[in-house]
Design goal:
Order of helices and strands: HHHEEHHEEEH
Distance between the termini: 93 Å
Oligomer: single chain
């Protein structure tokens, strides 16, 4: 009789990977509706859950990111995180927030980081490889976006200068 039940289960697909995945997703959805787990994203990745667990254990920190318009959001990174790790966490969080509000939207992060930088207590976080703790960033710290202006000594030309250069070539031809 047991073998007949096993055969019937296989026929109906109760042992298939798809059914197990559906059961896991429904269990996960039920867990995420719990108010205690309100800070977990709706579609969490393993890294999201890992960071949140480490945040509870004290080996990760929550940082408030203030935008230029005065609004802010929180991101969680490991205590040993670098500036690059913080930037990646910001990108991930902003994409998640934008998709929940307006659906898919492309943000050019190359443009964002070329025109804005992060600062903590008016100290700009330029070096992507530097540890956040070297700048005094701790749990519940505030990091602000600031406009990033390239100094003249960097060797980069402005767009208007490039335009004038190419415009001059056309006149001589």
């Amino acid at each position: 009789m047991e073998s007949g039940a096993k055969e019937e289960g296989k026929v109906l697909g109760y042992n298939s990977k798809y059914v197990k995945k559906v059961a896991l997703l429904s269990t996960l959805a039920a867990l995420l509706d719990d108010p205690i787990l309100a800070d977990v994203p709706k579609e969490p990745s393993l890294s999201n859950v890992d960071i949140l667990i480490n945040l509870e254990l004290g080996s990760a920190m929550c940082i408030s990111i203030f935008k230029l318009d005065g609004t802010f959001f929180d991101v969680a990174v490991m205590n040993s995180a670098t500036v690059k790790d913080l930037k990646l966490a910001i990108e991930k969080k902003v994409i998640e927030l934008e998709q929940s509000k307006m659906g898919h939207r492309h943000i050019s992060w190359r443009h964002v980081w070329a025109n804005f930088c992060l600062a903590h207590h008016n100290e700009k976080l330029f070096n992507d490889g530097a540890a956040l703790q070297d700048f005094g960033v701790r749990n519940n710290s505030q990091v602000h976006f600031l406009p990033y202006v390239v100094s003249k000594g960097s060797g980069r030309h402005s767009k208007s200068r490039k335009h004038r250069f190419f415009h001059g070539l056309n006149k001589h031809s």
